[in-house]
Design goal:
By secondary structure, this protein is mainly alpha-helical. It has seven helices and five strands. The chain is elongated, with a radius of gyration of 29 Å.
Length: 234
């Protein structure tokens, strides 16, 4: 009878321990779940949504700028930067559709994550270049003196210098509206591309530093806990 009573007490103690473990949860699994989420969402959902919105805005605005005048250069209408950012966001959404596998067990998972990291770095460079080009053009426009000649707007940096460079904007009859609208578009491009560059930089930093989606560079070793050490000794 004593043995049955002791066995019952041991069983009840074991059940209590299991309930406590379930209530507290495994700290390792909790850390792994947190490492794969960002603000309650699985990485990179938030960044991919931001990249898609910013990339679409930059692309649409770039094509609108190209429609103002046919003589605008490609570097002054940075729709190409917006397209790259949109491609990066699509790769991020593909990453969300791939089931999570620890320790890079699938080649597809590793390839998609590597593509997302490299494309984010490429988009970062493209957005920085777009900011530089649009800022240079905007500073030049602040010093322009423009005249409407036939169906073009001719602008000079220095009217007193005969050798000063002349900028010609075709397909326009009103220099005032063109310069004001183009200046506004250039300012918007600077702001949007700067935010896009920061978002892409954040994506690269998060993947590399915090290792969301378990972006491993080598083998990960777990430290032995006290219970594991005692079990090995026994």
């Amino acid at each position: 009878e004593k043995s049955t009573d002791s066995s019952k007490t041991q069983d009840s103690a074991m059940k209590k321990k299991k309930k406590q473990k379930k209530a507290k949860g495994d700290p390792k699994t909790g850390q792994e779940e947190e490492s794969r989420t960002c603000c309650g969402c699985r990485f990179p959902l938030l960044l991919a949504l931001l990249q898609l919105a910013l990339g679409t805005s930059v692309t649409v605005l770039g094509f609108l700028m190209a429609g103002i005048s046919s003589s605008l250069l490609v570097r002054d209408t940075p729709y190409w930067a917006g397209i790259i950012v949109c491609v990066v966001s699509l790769v991020g959404f593909v990453m969300l559709c791939i089931s999570y596998q620890p320790d890079e067990k699938t080649c597809v998972q590793f390839t998609v994550k590597l593509m997302y990291f490299l494309l984010s770095a490429l988009a970062l460079v493209a957005c920085v270049l777009a900011v530089a080009f649009t800022a240079h053009h905007y500073l030049q426009m602040t010093k322009f003196t423009c005249d409407t000649i036939l169906e073009s707007c001719q602008c000079k940096l220095d009217t007193e210098d005969p050798l000063s460079r002349t900028f010609i904007y075709q397909d326009t009859t009103d220099c005032g509206s063109l310069t004001s609208m183009l200046s506004l578009y250039l300012l918007l491009q600077m702001v949007l591309n700067l935010i896009s560059a920061l978002v892409c930089l954040l994506a690269c930093f998060v993947m590399w530093k915090h290792r969301y989606q378990v972006f491993y560079v080598g083998v990960r070793f777990y430290p032995l806990t006290a219970t594991e050490v005692q079990q090995q000794k026994v």
